[in-house]
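Notebook, p. 212. Picked up where the previous page left off. The plan for this session was modest: take the two constructs that came back from the sequencing core last week, fold each one, and keep the raw output in the notebook itself so nobody has to go hunting through shared drives later. Recording the first one now, exactly as returned: residue sequence, then the structure token string.
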Amino acid sequence: MGIISIYDIIVHQPELISSIRQGYDKKNQHIRHDIRGALLTLNSSIALAETNSEQYGKCIDIMKKSTNYIKNILEEWKKYDEKDIISLKIVNVRDLLESALKTVYLPNCVDANITIIGEEKGYLDYIKMMRVISNLIKNSLESIKVKGSIELLANVNNQNITIKIKDTGKGISPDIIDRIFDPMFSTKSTGLGLGLTYVKNVVNAHGGTVSVKSEIDVGTEFTLLLPNLQSKT
């Protein structure tokens, strides 16, 4: 079902796919970056489903989530200029975190846990925040060398929504931690350094802040502090 949905997207929205290939402005780079990551997740899930029948159900679920993730990105791009436009609506934060987690392939050697403190609902841009959290989860997975864990923690009250993504990966060097949100900065030879720039831009557009603390060979924790803007919707 996931593969068929991708096929439909390509057939019925060729102008979007063409723009992904040809566009070189900052906005299009972010979109290509996130779609490429989702396609890699799809490929990994397909490969696992072909070789391990016991994981078939899990893989199909990931494929569906990844396909919907791509479709939402394309639909969002079609509707908006995607500068700083935030579409706030009431969001179930647990569902947001669970959906973001399912856009990535989680190997058996990595444990992932979700904890919600306080209320489960707040006002956010669901699609943009799912892309933000998905990018942070992918970074955590890439930092875990052999085995480890990722913890997603949300604390929701009437004033703020705090979301933490914490991993037990290799950590970020103090020499570069102040640069990780800069456009085009990446420690990966094949990376464009766009994921964390998108994270910062979206959080800022919500009127929030993003911070990071890390320790080499211990892990990294990203904290998103967002105003719960229900009074403005």
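Okay, moving on. Second construct, recorded in the same format:
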Amino acid sequence: MNPSRTVIIAVAGVAAVLLALLVHALVSKPKAPPPAAAAVQEAPMTRVLTAKVALAPGDRLSADNMAWQPWPATTVNAAYITDGVTAAAKPAGAEGAVRQASTAMQDMASGGGPRLQAMIGSIVRDTIFAGEPITSTKVVRAGDSGYMAVRLPEGMRAFSIPVSVESGAGGFIQPGDRVDIMASHPDTSKNNGGMIAEQVLGNIKVLAVDQRTDTPKGATAAPLATLTLEVPEADVETLVRAKTAGQLMMALRSYADIGGGPSRSAGANHQVRIFRGGAPAETVTAQ
């Protein structure tokens, strides 16, 4: 073979090898992300307490009508209620599924966490739409100013009556119970005296016992000072007159006998028992 041809073939072979190595290096080199994509960073997330359903004024918050919703931490308003945890954006794939399942299990075990639990029992002051964050300006929590006014249904009034263990069913009355209000006063219709006992109002809801609006766990009979009752507006004057005329006593109703709502005895035909010394009680129908 011609020596010059041998040199040309060798040079061509070396060039081919170098070209192959260069192409392999270019192909295997990782591509740099586009400048715009490299600059994008997902914002950290937290969870905000929202209404699960539309809530109207007077509704009471519960674990069933509240829910945690993921929320960008940078857009959280200071009035929002958060779970106190800020984390990177939820990862995708298996890692994201594991984190979501872990959070759901923690919520189940803790009843939604202490911040959700603290809102249970609060009363809605202004309408809250489904999915809207719950804020302190739209709810009234137990003990806050205005709680009782928000809790009262339309047409009802809160009326307080001082009671003792004797006049308050032995101290067994708790918030949420219903009572009949009995009145006793001297019989002024006849000269020989005596006492009159009558039911003034029936099936009246107890809003608070002293300053408590809820029943503590394991509550037992205890001395009472004041009962706050939910009274229809039309019956407030009747109750004031009965309170002024004599002593009021509470008769605790059974839970099986609380249907039908409040009832009014005063002003309608009702039975009155008149006691005169040691004589047997006389029952008459009052108009």
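Notes on construct two before I forget. Residues 50 and 132 are 5 Å apart (CA to CA).
Flagging for discussion at group meeting.
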